[in-house]
Amino acid sequence: MVKARGHDKLEARLGYRFADPDLLDRALTHSSAVSPGKRVERSYQRLEFLGDRVLGLVVADMLYRRLPKANEGELSRSLNSLVRKETCAAIARELELGKHMNLGESEARTGGASKEAILGDIAEAVIGAIYCDAGLGQAYEVVERLFGQHISQAGNVRADPKTTLQEWAQAKGLEPPIYHEVERTGPDHAPEFTISVKIGAYEPLTATGPSKKLAEHKAAERFLVREKVWRETL
Q1: From 25, 48, 52, 116, the catalytic residue
Q2: What percent of the chain has pLDDT over 70?
Q3: How large is the average pLDDT for residues 136-141?
Q4: Is residue 160 among the annotated active site residues?
Q5: CA-wise closest residue to 76 among 84, 215, 49, 92
Q6: What is the number of other CB atoms lying within 10 angstroms of the CB of residue 206?
Q7: Which of 78 and 15 is assigned the larger pLDDT?
Q8: Which pLDDT tens digit goes with each residue over 6-36?
Q9: Residue 206, strand partner residues
């Protein structure tokens, strides 16, 4: 197992010092670094489950307060953008969580500390650990500080790309998009999916992601950009 470094600098970046440092250590421990019999107890998986829910609640509350004129659909799109794995992974990179992960030797060799899916999970696990250590109030403060700068962009969030692509196809009188799994690579705990999307006679496009859902969304977004329905960047 590749051991994590000391956490003083990480706690400084978080703006929070743990009363129970073991919680933070567990939040940073990937299942590949733990023997099979202890993965439930010692890896980040349970904390990631909890942190995902805490993050969703806090961000929903922040959006409700900061975007008083947004309707339910706009709030939902903003929420989905802010709590998705890509945003969590970006936060993880800002915190340099990769330097502090506990990884198994094989996962470390294959670049686990920089994988988007793992970084996103670790960020959520750290939030879950803060909630366990000090409750919702402290977790709220940390999430607000880390995600606050992304909230300012929330009012301009695009609609779901798969929904947009389906509506675009329907408007042109075409059959709904067809998504096809082209390839799956990587180990079971960190797979990579390549998905293609095809509409009628249009040239198919492919995209890769850590889950089928994310790969489908990326493929739909690339299709919309290529057909000039969306711009390359917001």
Answers
A1: 52
A2: 92
A3: 94
A4: no
A5: 84
A6: 16
A7: 15
A8: 688 999 999 999 999 999 999 999 988 888 8
A9: 196
120 and 173: one domain? no
Mean pLDDT to the nearest integer, 87-100: 92
Active site residue 133: no
Look at the chain and report how many structural domains it folds into: 2
- Of 164 and 190, which is predicted with more confidence? 164
Same structural domain, 142 and 171: no
Alpha-carbon distances of 7 from 3, 18, 119, 157, rounded to whole Å: 12, 10, 17, 34
Say if strands 178-185 and 205-209 run parallel, antiparallel, or are unpaired.
unpaired
CATH code where residue 55 lies? 1.10.1520.10
Q: Are residues 152 and 55 in the same domain?
A: yes
Domain encompassing residue 60: 8-156
Residue where a domain terminates, one of 128, 156, 184: 156
The strand order across the sheet containing 178-185 reads 178-185, 192-198, 205-209
Q: 202 and 93, same structural domain?
A: no
**What pLDDT does residue 37 have?**
78
Q: Last residue of a domain, which of 118, 139, 156? A: 156
| pLDDT higher than 90, residue 142 | yes
DSSP 80-133: HHHHSHHHHHHHHHHHTGGGG-BB-HHHHHTTGGG-HHHHHHHHHHHHHHHHHH
Do 179 and 130 fall within a single domain?
no
The answer to the question of residue 234 being in a domain is no
Considering the candidates 116, 124, 216, 221, report the single residue annotated as catalytic. 124
| pLDDT of 1 | 46
Round to whole Å and give the CA distance between 212 and 184.
9
149 and 186 together in one domain: no
